[in-house]
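Predict structure. Chain length: 451.
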Amino acid sequence: MNRYLILLNIYACCFIVSSCSSEWLDKKPDQKIAMITSIDDLQALLDNHGVMNSNTPYMGELSLPYYTIKEGELEQLSTPDRNTYMWKNDLYEGYDPIVDWDWNYRKIFYANVVLHELDRFPVDDVSKNTRSAALFFRAWANYHLVQLFCQGFDRTTAHSVLGLPIKTTADIHDIPQRSSLLETYQHIVDDLQESLYHHVDIQGSNLIRPNASAIRALLSKVFLLMGDYEKSLHQAEAIIKNTNAALLDYKQLDETAKYPFSLFNNEVIFHASILPTNAMTVSRLLINQEFYDSYDDFDLRKKLFFRHEGDGTLRFKGSYCESDEYFSGITLGEIYLIAAECNVRIGKGDKGVEFLMDFLRKRYERVDQLQLRTDKLALLKAVIEERKKELVLRGLGWGDLKRYNLEEDLAMPIVRSLSGQIIEMPANDNRYTMPIPEKVVKLSGLVQNIR
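Prediction complete.
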């Protein structure tokens, strides 16, 4: 199996069309790549959490205006990290590899290998569940890619703007061009619906494997990005009614602990973590005072998520990884906020408030001081504000800003202080869409994003 994994990593290099010379594309895959003897071998590929659950994208999070990197430390970052933080037009300046692209296409490669090899085995509950997991992980990777490397989803234009190159085979010679954005999202939805169809509940509580709640949760998240609030709500409410997960009561946690949240705690539906880079260390990525001050004094997250250092800086300690690694999986708390937002958006404000208050009772010392206005826009903004505060450093904020920017009442510029000057990026600026890595464009002929 180790030899097989080594070969997979070699061919993944070709698959992502990034870190390999063009000569690699003329080579035929070693016959050993097909030497799989059991479905357990295939499941082991999907259980390789260092590939499948780790290394979710960080560039969007690094771009958010809620964090600060000391100016003296910017020069210590890689070129892409420094330029991403500074919202530069040319992010890469010829730098290679671009890991947010590469690691996600590596996940897709692993998933496609599993889906291809499964056809050699009889169909039973074990093979169905492995197929379900592979489809989920392919959708999981595309879900992250589309938020970084494509425009926000606008139903009126999604059929005509560019999406992702959709990879459905493990053939390194197959180099698809970019689909439409609508086709990309439909591909993700189709994978998840098929994943749910094949899922068999035989794996217990292993949170690095997708269970039915995780599949539904990702569907809900995708429909939210698409603005299909009825479908997003349907999935969210199904999870809340049937999941084994439970909201953590933050009043029961120790705010003085170095890491207040335990790994694989009861609120986690699916476990994943953000790619660690020098720019994203907790000692370097500091919390803005303004963002910290947005938390009410009765909000328990203010002390559980952040700590004051002796030098006056604010640092994050609230990861569900129980470490300095940033959690980027799915929690029941996020699902409650989706249910609240979708209810408000479809005109069921009372129901939205019900979900929101059920959630906030687990986050605030008390909720009697909260004043929620009942008009739709104010209530929507209240839910969005809670979402921003709850999902800090989870890899979700950039996608949220892109979808808010498509709405006149929610769009707003983001600003950052740099070298004593304020720089601003307007809503819907082309820089919200990251460029495809330059070597990928050169070797594959993909159409580049306009910056």
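Summary: The chain has a mean pLDDT of 92.
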